[in-house]
Protein: Hydroxymethylglutaryl-CoA synthase
Amino acid sequence: MTAVGIDAIEIWTGKLTLNLPETFAPVKGEDPAKYTKGLGLETSSFPDVYEDIVTMGANAAKRLMDRRGLTPDDIGRIDVATESAFDNSKPVSTYIAGCLEQTYEGDFRHANKGERKFACVAGTQSIDDAYNWIKAGRNRGRAALVIATDTALYARGDPGEATQGAGAVAMLIDEEPSVVELSTEQGYGSMDETDFLKPNQQFPSVDGKRSMQVYLARMREALEDYESVAGRTKVEDFEYIPFHTPFPGMVRKAGLLGYRHMIRDTEKEDELADRIGRQPREADFDSWDDYEEAIRAYMDDLKETDEYREWYGRVIDPTLSLARRVGNWYTGSVHVARTSALKHAYETGKAMTGKQLLVGSYGSGAQAEIHAETVREGWRDEIEALNVDEQLAGRYDLDFEEYEQVHDAHNHEKDVELEEFTQPANEFVFTGWGRMNERKYEYVE
Ligand code: COA
Structure:
């Protein structure tokens, strides 16, 4: 059977950055450690005034196409995943295709274009759509371009303001991929939930604490559902486990839950039993509350064990290095986590070909999805070609007043004139509105 998966990845960060412990926390009267230790964040990315979901997505896609020597004729599908769309009818993929057509010979008239919506899980769903299209033999030898692009901005004063971010991840989905092959097996945990939504409004309504509980509950169901088709997962099976990362502190909780699940009824659980006891079993308790309390106590002990800490440091922590510096990219976030993991493997000289990743995606509203990926031989060249460190180092560091100005400039309800902070070069930029209120873009040399 032909392998299908991710053949190439490119990342495009917003050009501005906000330092959370040093610039944001002091103005909010908060301890910087809430950001660095609690949420696990150092800086977040923001779009300059000429950037938006289209420019970031098109710029990531152009880098990918140029690097791989692709033309529009090589692409049969452009799927954009976003929760930051500005149009309820015309999809962002048409704007991105329009941008790309300004700079390539040929066009994307033959390409099927769409836009996927299910909060942050939509990026992974777009990869699924591309995978299914290729597996069904409908691709006519062409690859799919999947672009996850978001400006994750919250209303000022909302607790979510701490976890903002902006950027795009472009991925080429193709046969015989260079980076990872996707497993056919998938698990889902999906339920009608009211944790985070944007009912025709730009900034989300969020029940932050509830969204964290829902993330964990749906992720657990997705893992059980995945195991029902792929068999039991074990901690030693996976080199890295990239999760959707709204902020690294969320993944700390998901990692602990996953570890507890994977070691249950294994030698590892027996090994730890001398020190922290065996995991509480529901059948041994008269009430759910007593059971939950016992689980909480067990988890508190588990996270202090050397075994857990070693596993977390090796398998989970490396997936968070980019998220710490960019914040939440919504649909792109789990794909940033996969990239961080492979980047870590590259930088530490790890052999990865044939190794497994377990990937946990999540979208509020709510749905979690879990699948496995097998790393392919070309992964190293793909990761080596990324310039994300240069992009991050080149960001303009906003002071608090500038941050508020940029936030206002991107607020659809406000009409703010603001000079750009950075100079665009060799990239697509937003230039204003057309006669039907469409957004206009240009490529600047
Ligand atoms: N030192 C160390 N840790 C600290 C700290 C300090 N001085 N101050 C706070 N913390 C810890 C808290 O204990 C908490 O960690 P815990 O959850 O492990 O207990 C963490 O930092 C965050 O602090 P908290 O007071 O809970 O933050 P908050 O009320 O401002 O809200 C969110 C945090 C995530 C709920 C909020 O940013 C949000 O709504 N984000 C958007 C929604 C989201 O991302 N949901 C996730 C699922 S998709």
